[in-house]
Amino acid sequence: MTIEWRYTTRPGLGVLSLAGYLGTEAIGRFTGAIGWVRARGSGPVILDLTRLRGWSADGQLAVSEAARRLAAEDRPLHLAAIPADGSLVPADGHPATTVHGDLASALAAHGATGTAQRQWRSDAWPATPGPADTCRRPPPDTTAPPQRTTTSTKERNMNDIVVKDSNGTPLSDGDSVTLVKDLKVKGTSETLKRGTLVKNIRLTSRPGEVECNTKKVKGLVLKTEFLKKA
């Protein structure tokens, strides 16, 4: 049993949502998600546990450790809708964590308005909307005239970006690459070894980075200077 995660960013705020059960076997995946949070976004982080069925003592310690790592970067961690008894006892030396009753309360405490700017998630994130998703989604406007679909400026800019590997070979979405050196995964104990094959990369808005998943770590951002097209 493990977890799925979704990370969304708002101006000066990030929201990491978890689904499943945060037990011992899920800690590595949770730590990887926190590494993704640290690499993307800024400001406070809300850990949304609306869809979390429960957590073990080790899972709670992992949350406390995440709070400590984020606090060291001046990014306080707040919890929303936590399971069990509604409390989190931080480990020695770890900061106290603010707890909100639900995600809406946590967002309101930070003055967050509007929709998320960007979103990343694990492959099996639940498709069925949860309570927090449903309450924030407005009903469709059936009176509005149909809008013509156009290509956004962001999409046009993405199409103009040429992403190349360490040898200058162009990369595309869905390509496979191999690592040309050992890479330590930030925020985890994992090290990706030279020669590791990474499949199905995704291009980003930055020409020097790609997004990908491995068997042990989801939501990786790798620099193209360390990659070679397979």
How do the strands line up in the largest sheet? 5-4-3-2-1-6
Question: How far is the N terminus from the C terminus?
Answer: 33 Å
Q: Count of DSSP E strands?
A: 16
- Average pLDDT value? 79
Q: Percent helix among the residues?
A: 10-25%
> From N to C, what is the helix and strand string?
EEHEHEEHEHHEEEEEEEEEE
Question: What sort of overall outline do the alpha carbons produce when their principal axes are compared?
Answer: globular
Number of helices: 5
Largest sheet: 6 strands, mixed
Structural class: alpha+beta
Query: Unreliable segments (pLDDT under 50, ≥5 consecutive)?
Result: 130-158
> In percent, how much strand structure appears in the residues?
25-35%
Radius of gyration: 19 Å
Short overview:
The protein is of the alpha+beta class and 230 residues long.
How would you describe this structure to a colleague?
By secondary structure, the chain is an alpha+beta fold. The chain is built from 5 helices and 16 strands. The strands form 5 sheets. It has a 6-stranded mixed sheet with strand order 5-4-3-2-1-6. A 3-stranded antiparallel sheet has the order 12-9-16, with no helix packed on it. The longest helix has 16 residues. About 13% of the residues have low confidence.
